[in-house]
Amino acid sequence: MPPKRQRKASADVATAEPLHSAKKRTTRSSTRSSVAAQKLESPQQAEEEEDSAQTQSESGVVAEALPKKKNKFTEKAEGDVEGERFWLMKAEPESRIERGKDVKFSIDDLAACKVPQGWDGVRNYGARNNLKAMKKGDLAFFYHSNCKQPGIVGVMRVVQEASVDTTAFDPNEPYYDPKSSPDNPKWYLVHVEFVRKFRRIIGLHELKTYANGPLATMPLLKQGRLSVSGVPKECWDFVLSLEDKQQLDT
């Protein structure tokens, strides 16, 4: 799944490979693009969340209606104060069959792609709203989920902003939603591309050790089931700093 925005990336990813030039593409029905995102709620469960999630996303990034009060991350994201916005997006690196298709998609799968990939299959309203709030050039952590060693494994870049996720219309797709239609689409995707793979996995257990300190405001540690969440700038920088530190025992 995957993105294009010319925006100044943080120093930690400045050495990333240059962007691929690729044609604007529609969502494909291939195994990898259909499964890149971890789906944590069914469309039926997600439907129950719509009223609250359409007002405010679970990460604090408002997509469709501005609350009277904004938290620090919301103000920075919406106001684009420094031209930098950061996210975390989950995918499953190990094989799992859904409706007859393998939904596996890892950081290595993304790295092998020659063109940006559509991050489709998200079926949670909070996660969807975060996708809709993304801008071209935003950076995101690639997070391996639902696997033996969950954690952050690399960085990718949004190269194309939100468009309709047409896989929701296809009964043959793993995350088909009969309540979504071309006339009334409910689900969206962004296109992303590979930036770099970390030298080591920064595991969930390790991240949790900082939950009462540098990562106290990180949505991943507060709303663990959300497959697409925002990352405050201070948390982003701290996670990057962990890459070269000795890995904690898990």
UniProtKB/TrEMBL annotation:
<dbReference type="GO" id="GO:0005634">
    <property type="term" value="C:nucleus"/>
</dbReference>
<feature type="domain" description="EVE">
    <location>
        <begin position="85"/>
        <end position="241"/>
    </location>
</feature>
<feature type="region of interest" description="Disordered">
    <location>
        <begin position="1"/>
        <end position="77"/>
    </location>
</feature>
<dbReference type="InterPro" id="IPR052181">
    <property type="entry name" value="5hmC_binding"/>
</dbReference>
<protein>
    <recommendedName>
        <fullName>Thymocyte nuclear protein 1</fullName>
    </recommendedName>
</protein>
<dbReference type="InterPro" id="IPR047197">
    <property type="entry name" value="THYN1-like_EVE"/>
</dbReference>
<dbReference type="Pfam" id="PF01878">
    <property type="entry name" value="EVE"/>
</dbReference>
<keyword id="KW-0539">Nucleus</keyword>
<dbReference type="InterPro" id="IPR015947">
    <property type="entry name" value="PUA-like_sf"/>
</dbReference>
<dbReference type="InterPro" id="IPR002740">
    <property type="entry name" value="EVE_domain"/>
</dbReference>
<keyword id="KW-0597">Phosphoprotein</keyword>
